Amino acid sequence: METKNIGLRGIEVADTRISNIDGEKGKLIYRGFDILDLTKNSTFEETAYLLLYDQLPNKLQLDEFNSKLVDARYIPKQMQKNMGNWRKDADPMDMLQAFVSALAGYYDEEFSNKDASYDKAINLIAKVPTIVASWQRIRNGLEPVEPDSSLGHAANFLYMMFGEKPDPEVERIFDVCLILHADHTFNASTFTARQVASTRAHMYSAASAAIGALSGELHGGANTEVMKMLLEIGDINKVEPWIKEKMSEGDRIMGMGHAVYKTYDPRAQVLKELSCKLAEKTKEPWFDITEKVETTTISEMKSQKDRDIYPNVDLYSASLYYMLKIPMDLNTPIFAISRVVGWAAHIIEEKFAEAAPKPALYRPKATYVGKYCGPEGCEYQTLDLRK
Ligand SMILES: CC(=O)SCCNC(=O)CCNC(=O)[C@H](O)C(C)(C)COP(=O)(O)OP(=O)(O)OC[C@H]1O[C@@H](n2cnc3c(N)ncnc32)[C@H](O)[C@@H]1OP(=O)(O)O
Ligand SMILES: O=C([O-])CC(=O)C(=O)O
Questions:
Q1: CA spacing 20 to 30 A to 291: which of 4, 43, 68, 322?
Q2: Does 338 contact ligand 2 (Cβ within 6 A)?
Q3: Does residue 343 contact residue 210 with C-beta atoms inside 8 Å?
Q4: Structural Rg of the chain based on CA atoms
Q5: Using CA of residue 110, residue 111, residue 115, residue 116, what is the dihedral sign?
Q6: Which domains occur in the chain, in start order?
Q7: What's the rounded Cα separation, in Å, for the pair 255 and 310?
Q8: What positions does UniProt annotate as the active site of this protein (predicted)?
Q9: What letter would DSSP give residue 383?
Q10: How far away, in angstroms, is 146 Cα from ligand 1 center?
Q11: d(C-alpha 159, C-alpha 163), whole Å
């Protein structure tokens, strides 16, 4: 039987200038720059500019970009009213997908040229945090908090959610988290966004499809599942039996494994350090439990399947966000707050790539393995003759 590239693994479907992964060395590059240099030296806003415009901004460009983002943070009051009609226990990813899609109903959808697309990108990047924070307030019976123009992107989100300005250390930790999640080549949600954009659908439509793809537990949804796992385990002494039992039943351990990295995910390394640092302060057990999940999964994988496995970006973000008092079902929406930058950059590249080969409508081929009655097809029976 012909072997197929299940899940399109290893198939190159388009050129991109936006990011690159070296899966063997564990390196992630945004527009030529190592992610580790960006986390040390840049802010999320600078990183977003880099991903969108293919260069690091100078001071003037950054100021202009920041002020466009700040101006675009507001969402229509009517949208917040509509959120009030949702079930309070609705999944925040469902809410986010619906309200990102709804942006098209409030804003001009001009998307036929590159400049207009950048405006849409800024609108989206600025409004996604406000949508998430508004929902967090509204579902708890609280008034949404207006954006604060004196705060950067990361701090403003935390402020809109908690109603208090974060201290500078927390702000920087969260900013680094946003930098780390902003892009990752043709991951499932970005590929979804590009595929929708390849039909010439507009940006909000492509982004809301990407949110749907991100929500699944094999992709961005894993960070929420990791926290559920940590809470279920609850005690470092229970990690080994828990992991052994799950893996012997064939279950996957969330936050472990990656389709591209054959070594440590560089983002997981940074998040691990940040989570460890926070745990020293808060004295909570979640970092230690996560580390034990990591080592136990690695040794179980080795003994059960003689295979290597490493943490991915979703393993240590879970404990980190938990220690920042973020409700665990917001872990994946927070991923979206950052990844929306990558989606927007890829949507623009998909639609307006200048160099050949230009992207085309994605349309893969399927192998038909269904009913076959011969070259003429099956004999059709009318309803009254069917048994
Ligand atoms: C932001 C992100 O999207 S990062 C990924 C987030 N997702 C998760 O953390 C979910 C858990 N991880 C996984 O399911 C996988 O590692 C994936 C889907 C991320 C990548 O999978 P791939 O490397 O392509 O491997 P694939 O799904 O083909 O699995 C290969 C083998 O490793 C096993 N395996 C892979 N990941 C795990 C895991 N986390 N726990 C246990 N076993 C695993 C699979 O069961 C499979 O075993 P088999 O060959 O005996 O059936
Ligand atoms: O690249 C992938 O397949 C998944 C991932 O790590 C991401 O989207 O950040």
A1: 43
A2: no
A3: yes
A4: 22
A5: positive
A6: 14-222+327-352 (1.10.580.10), 238-322 (1.10.230.10)
A7: 9
A8: 258, 314
A9: G
A10: 41
A11: 5
